[in-house]
């Protein structure tokens, strides 16, 4: 009887572990987490077919670069609704996004539409498109 109880316990633990991993999806970041993840690092991604790299400076500056385009300077901050807000020319309006994270993958989520854009966090200032991302 003890062996059957042990087998049942182990089976339940395996199922519980598998279920918890299946439910583990991207986690919404709060303000402090957004700041910790982005400050001094670069997001590398593709936004509607355009490859980009965006560096988040510690003083709230952004350097945004697209493949084949020159860098553009902008600004970023985190608002009191736990959203990343940025202003990157030529857009003069501030845009804010909910940020989700799964490992080194970040998802920009447009609040009104829920549309997600995927990016990878790369340590430091990594604006050179000639260097492949190892992630």
What would you say this structure looks like, in words?
- This protein has 135 residues and is α+β, with helices and mostly antiparallel strands.
- The protein has one domain: Lipocalin (Beta Barrel).
- The chain has two helices and nine strands.
- The protein has helices spanning 2-23, 31-38, and strands spanning 27-28, 41-47, 50-56, 61-66, 72-78, 83-87, 95-102, 105-109, 116-122.
- Strands 2-3-4-5-6-7-8-9 form an eight-stranded antiparallel β-barrel.
- A hairpin with a 2-residue loop joins strand 2 (41-47) and strand 3 (50-56).
- The protein is globular and about 65 Å long.
- The termini are far apart.
Summarize this, please?
The chain is an alpha+beta fold and 135 residues long. 22% of the residues lie in helices and 40% in strands. It has a single domain (27-122), classed as Lipocalin (Beta Barrel).
What's the CATH class label? Mainly Beta
Helix fraction bin = 10-25%
Can you count the beta strands?
Answer: 9
Order of helices and strands: HEHEEEEEEEE
Specify Rg, calculated over alpha carbons.
20 Å
Number of helices, counting only DSSP H or I runs of 4 residues or more: 2
What characterizes the major β-sheet? 8 strands, antiparallel, barrel
Question: What order do the helices and strands come in, and which of them pair?
Answer:
Layout: H1 2-23, E1 27-28, H2 31-38, E2 41-47, E3 50-56, E4 61-66, E5 72-78, E6 83-87, E7 95-102, E8 105-109, E9 116-122
Antiparallel strand pairs: 1-7, 2-3, 2-9, 3-4, 4-5, 5-6, 6-7, 7-8, 8-9
């Amino acid at each position: 009887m003890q062996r059957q109880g042990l087998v049942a316990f182990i089976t339940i633990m395996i199922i519980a572990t598998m279920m918890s991993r299946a439910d583990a999806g991207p986690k919404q970041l709060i303000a402090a987490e957004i700041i910790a993840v982005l400050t001094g690092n670069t997001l590398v991604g593709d936004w509607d077919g355009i490859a980009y790299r965006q560096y988040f400076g510690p003083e709230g500056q952004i350097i945004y670069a697209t493949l084949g385009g020159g860098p553009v300077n902008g600004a970023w901050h985190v608002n009191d609704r736990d959203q990343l807000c940025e202003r990157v020319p030529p857009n003069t309006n501030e845009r804010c996004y909910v940020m989700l994270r799964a490992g080194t993958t970040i998802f920009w989520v447009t609040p009104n539409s829920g549309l997600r854009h995927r990016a990878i966090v790369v340590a430091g200032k990594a604006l050179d498109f000639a260097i492949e991302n190892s992630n």
